[in-house]
Amino acid sequence: RQIDLRGPAEKVRVVMTVRNEGPKPESSILLAMNEERHQNLSYVKVTSGKSKLVVRQSKKRPQGEVLYKVSLKKALGANSVRKLTVILGFMGILVPYPQYVKQNDPHLVKYNGCLYITSPYLVKKQTTTIKLSTPNVISSTKAKPHSHKGDKITYGPYTNIQPYTHKALSLHFESKAEFATVTEMEREIKVCHWGGVVFTETYNLRNSGANLKDVFSRIDYERMQRGSSFDFLNAKLPKNSYGIDYRDDIGNISTSNVRETSRNVVMEMRPRFPLFGGWHTVFKLFYTVPIMQLVSSIVGSSSYILNTTFSTPFDNLIVEEATIKVVLPEGSSDIKWITPFAIDSVDTEVQKTYLDLTGRPVLVLKAKNLMRYHNQYFQVWYSYPSIMIHRGPLFVVIGFATFFACVIIASRIDLTIGARTKDKTE
Predict the structure, then answer these.
(1) What's the CA gap between 34 and 56, in Å, rounded?
(2) 55, 90, 177, 216: least CB-packed within 10 angstroms?
(3) What are the beta bridge partners of residue 31?
């Protein structure tokens, strides 16, 4: 088991070798975790080789544990062995301690976890490795065998751990991670078949690290006394993105830089001021992607598929609440969608804008507790008759033609009272 505590969230990677010691083949296995840690669970994924397995939460809760059922693609025969990889993501696990620090104080955090892997089965052997962002550890659980080398702590190996065995693991250490937390994010993806896919993203960004105790000093900040603050964000936008704009309520923020790579467009952003613990800011990001890059048509039909990423393009941001709005062209129907993970709610609404009669259908997807693992591709299917593509320009042509016709007619109407006298020439 590898526990990564180098960021604001806990990322766990477990590589396990499972043996079926029963007489019958098994088509599934169970994963377990205690209820307290399950409240902070953000992401779970299980793979066997390169195949992703289906994971569903079980209704059974033995001894107050939460179980997940993993369906195997091929049944595990008697006395057979299978290697599985489990990826887990937890939010809200790392707590600033102390909660208030001065500008030049180190950023210390506390971590509470489990020394053993919670399992409904007998674990014959296990080793846990914890990666930190600094080697500075104030205190840690002393359990033999145990070693600390640099920024890595190793516990184990431990043998013959009984099912549902719990032992607390506690760490108090210095963290260099940027605790950049988005409390609310609204991401609007507007599909326009005449132009491109327009992205409008609104972020309420907060530093969830230790709060600044005293007043802010710009002089000390320039002397690299920056504590838990951060002043830099990095976004990876889709390749060939254009029309990029970064602004807040005041206006355009010019402290940004855009560069192209072979795979994407990298935008380096700096807020108007550094964000210390407890500080927050609200900003918007605009960009457009060519429609041929994200939307493809189904041959022989009037159906289209939008394929784009679900979460934020920013690195190492955790999102508490996210709203994804997919605005489709007016006249779209038979709307279907699929996401690679479960979300909290789905709704539909109508958005009216210029040249619209009935409005554009909007698919609204809401999710909570998103992290880096959630920035995966999702798909939206919709039907859009080809004749509807020409309706907008046709309305413009008819509008201008009607306007000029009215001007011509109006210029030829005589609205004077009485007969018109003609000039006589001699």
Answers:
(1) 16
(2) 216
(3) 68
What do you get for the CA distance between the two ends of the chain, in Å? 112
| Residue 128: both structure tokens together | 């846990």
The CA–CA distances, whole Å, from 251 to 74, 93, 180, 248, 272 equal: 57, 36, 22, 5, 11
Query: Residue-wise pLDDT tens for the chain (426 aa)?
Result: 999 999 999 999 999 999 998 889 999 999 999 888 999 999 999 999 889 999 999 888 887 789 999 999 999 998 899 999 999 999 999 999 999 998 888 999 999 999 999 999 999 999 999 999 999 999 999 888 989 999 999 998 999 999 998 899 999 999 999 999 999 999 999 998 888 899 999 999 999 999 988 888 888 888 877 778 888 889 999 999 999 999 888 888 877 889 999 889 999 888 888 899 899 999 999 999 999 999 998 887 889 999 999 989 998 889 999 999 999 998 889 999 999 988 999 999 998 887 777 888 999 999 999 998 998 999 999 998 877 777 777 778 888 899 999 999 888 887 777 655 555 444
